[in-house]
Every structure is written in C-alpha cells, then in structure tokens.
Amino acid sequence: MKKQSFLFLIGGILSLIIAMGIGRFAYTPILPLMQKDLSFSNTVAGYIASSNYAGYLLGAILAGAIPLKKYRVISLRISLMISILTTALMGLTYSNLLWYVLRFLSGVSSAFVLVLASGIVLDKLAAISKTSWSGLLYGGVGLGIFLSSLIIPNLNQWIGLAIVSGVLAFFVWIWFDETSNVVEMKNKQEIFAQVPPTKWLIWLIIAYGLEGLGYIITGTFIVSIAEKTSSFHKGATLVWMMVGLAAIPSCLIWSLLAKKWGYVKSLVLAMALQSLGIAMPAFWISKTSFIISALLFGATFMGITTLATTLGRQMNPSNSSRTIGILTAIYAIGQLIGPILAGVLSLFTHNFNTALIGASSIVLIGAGMLLNGIQFERKSKGILISK
Fold first, then answer.
1. 3-state secondary structure 160-196
2. How much is the pLDDT for 316?
3. What does the angle CA 116 – CA 122 – CA 128 come to, to the nearest 5 degrees?
4. Distances, alpha carbon 255 to alpha carbons 133, 139, 145, in Å
5. Which of 217, 296, 238 has the alpha carbon at shortest distance from 49?
6. CA–CA separation, 248 vs 143, rounded Å?
7. For residue 116, which of 320, 303, 317, 301 has the smallest C-alpha distance?
8. What pLDDT shows up at residue 18?
9. Residue 305 vs residues 4, 267, 299, 328: alpha-carbon distances, Å
10. What mean pLDDT, rounded, does the chain reach?
11. What is the pLDDT of residues 183-214, one digit of tens each?
12. Tens-digit pLDDT profile for residues 230-283
C-alpha cells in the first residue's frame, strides 16, 4: 500500500475513533460514574442512551438519502467537529434535557461519520484491490473504546475525551483533503463473485436490525451491570477495556475469515458467538464471566458491522453510501428501542438478567435468518464476472 493510501486509511481509522469509539461509546464506561455522582435511575440512563441512538437513526437516514458523493469530505469534517463539541458539552452540564439533546446531536454526527468514512475508504480500498483491509478501518472503533477506558479514570471524563478527539481530528483534516473523494477505479478483467444476489439484501437488513436491537443492551449497560455486582466494587471500567482490546483486531480477523469462508457464514458465526457472550452474565456472575463476556462482545460487535457493511457494498457497489446508510438506519432503529426496553425491564425485575437473555435470543434469531444466504456463496464461488 502506497504512503498516500496508508495515510488515507489512518485518517478513516481516526475518524471512527473520534465519532464512534469516543463520541458514541464513551457513555458506557462513564455511565456508572455519572449515576454515582448524580443519582439518576436506569430508566433515565436508558433514555439518555436512546436519545443518542435516535440521533444515530436520523443521521443514518439523512446520510443515505442526501446525495453527498461530491461533498463527502467536507461533510465528514463538519460531522467530526459536531461530535467533538457535543462530547465536551456533556461534561459542562447537569441537565437531563440538555443531555438528551447533546447525545441526540452526537448520534447524528456519529452516523454521518460512519457512513461517510465507510463509503470513502471502502471505495478507495476497492480501487486498489485491498477490500480485505476494511477490517483495519473498523478497528478504529475498538481503539477508541480502549483509549476512552484509559482516559476516563485519569482525566475529566467528557472534556478530556473531547480534547484528545480534537488532537486526532487535526490529522484527519490533513490526510482527508478534497482529492480524497476522487476515486479512480482500476479496470479489472475478472472478479470472483462470492456474495448473494441483490434481492437477498432484505434478509441482511432485517438480521442487522435484530443485531442492533440485541447487541446494544450489552453495549450500553455492561459496565453498569458489572459495577453493581460483588465482583466489581471498583474498576468495572476494566470490562470496557477488554471490549476495546478484543475489538481492535477483530474486524481484520473477521474480514480475513470472510475471504476464506464467505461473508454470510462468517456473519452467522459472529452473531452466534455474540449471543453467547451477551447471555453469559445472566447465568454466571463473576469477574471471569464478565471478562469472557466482554471479550466475546468486543470480538464480534464491530466485526459484524464490518462484515455486514462490506457485504452490503459488494452486493450494491454502484451506490455504496446508500446501501450502508440503509443498513445503518435499520441498525439504529434496533439501538433506539433496546436501551429503553432494558431500562424498563430492569425497573420491574430489579436486574438486567431478563434483558440480557432477551437480547441474546434476538441476536441468535438474526443469525438464523442469514443461514439461507450461505447457499448463494456456494453457488457463486468460482463464477467470473467480466468488467
């Protein structure tokens, strides 16, 4: 990979660190600290989380619907600035209403960054025949999670994260110039088609929506759940650190597995493993179980996003941003519903066990819905398409 392409990829990774790993997911390890200092309920915590996912849903819809192909870089820059600003302001207010607004705007910006950075970088990687490197791009989310878990105990939480994000954004601004949006596709004589037909996309969309609904319970409350057990009186942030560590290499690993096994089969396996990880703390409460759960969750949640968005792009390469936008939108609908349901269930059951078991079942159902796509990969393997 040439130096320019390498810096281009790094810029995409930094974008996801800022808007996703920090701007979107930092709420999870900060939540128990906020609840301890400000004493608000799990229901309120669920509403704060869902306001972010509501914004994420709107951002995904807009990013997929608005024709931004000529303005992807400037739109990405603006979205990053909004993400950083809303992160900083979270540490300067104690109003529930303002938290809802700030997390909503943060959700809008993070969706734009994910859709735009994915579209720009995946198109670039496809042009230089490095599609399998998409795993490195999405590894940025894991890096952001790991980075935030290190920063939160030592700096002023939201404000400290915003400062770090601002420094990283400087490099994105340099490496993502206006010429980055111009992608020249090399002429390929042969391409091996190993993905289902476009009509199968509806199965992927539904399954990805169920994934969004199921995974977000753990993605929002795992640190808070661990904090309330006898296994973690302090230092539950360690659980989130394990999530980040497992997520960093996971996207590349799943991309390589998909190249060998096929994207659909890899998605089914990843979702099945995640289902196991989500349910584990409901049946086995110990420090070991939380760490295993965190590792399984971290090893799969962004890997699933990598597989689903890359597969969606390959099924509809002529309009990658729109396809990724649709997938991100259905995912966001699930995310919007999940924390509210979990918060309400915990209010009645006084724990998160029911929510975790339900979330695990939903993800497993989604994995089952993808099984009929494996046949297309088998049939299409070895078929050549001329270009």
1. HHHHHHHHHHHHHHHHCCHHHHCCCCCCCCEEECCCC
2. 73
3. 140
4. 8, 11, 20
5. 217
6. 6
7. 320
8. 95
9. 26, 9, 11, 9
10. 84
11. 554 444 334 446 777 788 899 999 999 999 99
12. 777 667 788 888 999 999 999 889 988 988 888 999 999 999 999 999 999 999
Q: What is the 3-state secondary structure (H, E, C) of the chain?
A: CCHHHHHHHHHHHHHHHHHHHHCCCCHHHHHHHHHHHHCCCHHHHHHHHHHHHHHHHHHHHHHHHCCCHHHHHHHHHHHHHHHHHHHHHHCCCCCHHHHHHHHHHHHHHHHHHHHHHHHHHHHHHHHCCCHHHHHHHHHHHHHHHHHHHHHCCCCCHHHHHHHHHHHHHHHHHHHCCHHHHCCCCCCCCEEECCCCCHHHHHHHHHHHHHHHHHHHHHHHHHHHHHHCCCCCCCCCHHHHHHHHHHHHHHHHHHHHHHHHHCHHHHHHHHHHHHHHHHHHHHHCCCHHHHHHHHHHHHHHHHHHHHHHHHHHHHHCHHHHHHHHHHHHHHHHHHHHHHHHHHHHHHHHHCCCHHHHHHHHHHHHHHHHHCHHHHHHHHHHCCCEEEC
Q: Which two tokens stand for residue 333?
A: 């609908």
Nearest to residue 96, comparing CAs of 60, 57, 48, 139? 48
Q: CA 23 to CA 27: how far, in whole Å?
A: 8
- At 386 the pLDDT is 36
The residues, any chain, with a CB within 8 Å of residue 254's CB and separated by 6 or more, are 135, 266, 270, 300, 303, 304, 306, 307
User: Which residues, at least 6 apart from 385, have a Cβ–Cβ distance to it below 8 Å?
Assistant: 190, 191, 193
CA–CA separation, 380 and 314 (whole Å) = 13
- Asked if 109 contacts 296 with a C-beta cutoff of 8 angstroms, the reply is no
Q: What are phi and psi of 191, to 5 degrees?
A: -135, 130
pLDDT band for 382, please (50, 70, 90 cuts).
Answer: very low
For residue 7, pLDDT beyond 90: no
- Look at the block and give the residue holding tokens 């209403």: 97
Instruction: Tell me the whole-structure pTM to 2 decimals.
Output: 0.81
